[in-house]
Design a protein that fits this description.
Elements lengths: L1 E2 L4 E7 L1 E2 L2 E2 L11 E7 L4 E6 L2 E8 L2 E7 L6 E7 L4 E2 L1 H10 L13 H9 L3 E5 L5 E6 L8 E6 L6 E7 L12 E3 L4 E5 L3 E4 L5 E3 L15 E5 L4 E7 L2 E8 L2 E6 L3 E7 L5 E8 L8 E8 L4 E2 L1
Antiparallel strand pairs: 1-2, 2-5, 3-4, 5-6, 7-8, 8-9, 9-10, 11-12, 12-13, 13-14, 15-16, 16-17, 17-18, 19-20, 20-21, 21-22, 23-24, 24-25, 25-26
């Protein structure tokens, strides 16, 4: 689920029948997965692409997704400017043959440069930023606490060392993509510390709130910045919460059972998340989308 702008979300889902979105038909057969765009102001959703494959991403007007072929077993990737994307056999072959996905902030296939650099030395990790910014590189195997994070800026011949932070301060990002927040115009990084990385290489510390998640050394929590405070999504001892921390003030955003990660609008004010909806048929799981305005504190 991604924000297209401050009013629209693009997401994968199933066609609505009656009061909710069901993952199965009445006869128990699976429905076709489709790509939708919803206007959060009106709640109206329109089908964007049908028979989609469970792989898609969106970034700054660019979208990439898979569509099932007629055999129902294979897929073809489509990519390009939103509304103008075209079938891409090249992207399809890259994903199928090389087994790599679209796991980077720019919603692009991992290019040969990054693949080569990472294969050259398996003890190093590459984190891609936007193409115009570059990428980060740091050691992940047999590292010492003082190993540097190198910032390879686009257009620069030599990398710069990130000041004030080391490899241990980015380790939690190993299985996640780096996220850029337009309202801050910076990348949010967190591990043993939380910090912002600006495209020019400057950094800024970001204090993380204390709470029950400290018991699990923050491994049971995820932190997402907003314009008005820090979201904390944590699961501990059977209790799941999404909280908005504003200094010493704690606001509960939801206690519903969430599906996947929350996502923040470009202006930093709207938080969207999937949750498991109540249903009279316990064997049929239904998902719904909620949007919370953390600047105006309203939910839709």
């Amino acid at each position: 689920m991604y924000w297209v702008d401050n009013d629209q979300l693009v997401f994968l889902g199933f066609k609505r029948e009656g009061a909710g979105s069901k993952s199965v038909d009445k006869d128990g057969s699976a429905q076709q997965l489709s790509l939708y765009i919803i206007d959060v102001r009106t709640g109206r959703a329109q089908t964007y692409a049908e028979r989609t494959y469970p792989m898609f991403c969106y970034s700054r007007g660019y979208i990439a997704y898979g569509k099932q072929n007629r055999d129902g077993k294979t897929f073809t990737m489509w990519a390009g400017k939103l509304g103008e994307e075209q079938e891409s056999q090249e992207l399809t072959e890259q994903i199928i043959r090389k087994g790599r996905g679209l796991g980077n902030v720019a919603c692009r296939y991992l290019d040969e440069e990054v693949t080569y650099r990472q294969a050259r030395n398996a003890s190093y990790r590459i984190l891609k930023l936007y193409p115009e910014h570059g990428f980060l590189e740091f050691q992940i195997q047999g590292y010492l606490p003082d190993q540097p994070i190198l910032y390879h800026k686009t257009g620069e011949s030599e990398p710069m060392e990130i000041q004030g932070y080391k490899a241990t301060d980015a380790m939690i990002l190993l299985n996640q993509q780096v996220e850029y927040y337009p309202f801050k115009e910076a990348y949010f990084m967190w591990s043993s510390k939380a910090w912002w990385l600006y495209p020019n290489g400057k950094t800024e510390p970001q204090p993380l709130p204390r709470g029950p998640w400290d018991e699990c050394y923050r491994t049971c929590a995820h932190f997402t910045p907003t314009k008005t405070g820090m979201l904390v999504n944590y699961f501990l001892r059977g209790s799941e919460r999404l909280l908005l921390m504003q200094g010493d003030n704690v606001h509960t955003v939801t206690t519903r059972r969430m599906v996947g990660r929350e996502t923040v609008s470009p202006n930093g004010c709207l938080v969207a998340f999937n949750y498991v909806a109540d249903t009279p048929k316990p064997m049929i799981q239904e998902w719904s989308i909620a949007v919370v305005d953390v600047c105006g504190r309203g939910e839709s």
